[in-house]
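Predict the 3D structure for this chain.
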Amino acid sequence: MKISIIGTGYVGLVTGTCFAELGSNVTCVDIDKVKIDNLNKGVIPIYEPGLEKMVQRNVAAGRLSFTNELNKVINQSEVLFIAVGTPSDKDGSADLKYVLDVARTIGQNINRYLVVATKSTVPVGTSKKVKDVISEEVRKRGLNIEFDVASNPEFLKEGDAINDFMKPDRVVVGVESDKAKKILTSLYQPMLLNNFRVIFMDIASSEMTKYAANAMLATRISFMNDIANLCELVGADVNMVRTGIGSDSRIGNKFLYPGTGYGGSCFPKDVKALIKIGIDHGYELNVLNAVEYVNDKQKLILFEKLVKHFKGNIKGKNIAIWGLAFKPGTDDIREAPALVIIEKLLQSGCNVTVYDPVAMDEVRKKIQNEIQYAQDLYSATLNADAIMHITEWKEFRMPNWEIIKRSMRPNPVLFDGRNVYSQSDLDGIKYYKIG
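Done. Predicted structure below.
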């Protein structure tokens, strides 16, 4: 099947490459010429385990190509996925400018039947707007061309996106015609031969499913962070509490880990957008307002512990940061707790040295030389008064604490934002965790 993916960001690039891996002929489109030139050479703009080799393999096989010319691929495609960004506007709503720009170009060039499927995370009603824009542009040309619009939200976890695509829990598809349903069934059939987990529904429900799923996961994270902070006050251990409630089959044990708050490109943006959708329809989502409030506070929890430990005297302290990406397995620093903490440390007069296995270049682009960049986790701790462990990369799990203790200043302290360590392994290093 011939498909086109509009947008070569995280969602578009992973989706297009995986469809090519499954045998489809895929063209990915982006307005960024430098990015497209690099992709045609096999150089990818993001870090995602296994993706670079998959891109290179499928480009070499002729199943995957990249172009800047959207108008030339529209009538060569059976399915066209819109996977452009929908950043938050100032009021929290999703900015649909790029989505509707693509729809306008489709309407100006389409001359045969096409299924247009939105992969971008969009508010309920967006697919109707896409359809209306395409129809209006076709009408201006004096034509009557049949096409369908569908909703096919993505549920990819950064750091494990290829596995999520190839072995999905479910594929949600919103359609309004049997013809579109048949085509999208054929597209997904090869990857789901043994267990066809495609869930077809109406378009509005499909659009809402994406937001509701991310909002539920964000809610679990903020709930556990709230419980963790209460555990500290009452003398309970949140790790034991998590194990206890996670053993309940009605609750389960996923997304119950306390930490420094959620970040990334999805949860913060989607929670804000869903709250705004509620406001636009005269309904206040009180639970999600609380989720967002708790998360904003939680991003400063390690900084507050640092201030308390040093009795407010942190000016001139040397702080080592382990982990910058919002989660392990990615170089994505959007809404990352580490950036919030670093900003507060700098404002307080601290000296900051950071290390992350893959996200340092992204941080350099944003913060430049306001902080120091270490070559490894050990050099980050040289002459440090304190370590803040923020992103739980595997290489941080079992460091040599004797080397670290000797490299730090007297009375060293560790603030563990992921509850990975134990005080019993840290002889001579003061230890604080979450909850």
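The longest helix spans residues 203-234.
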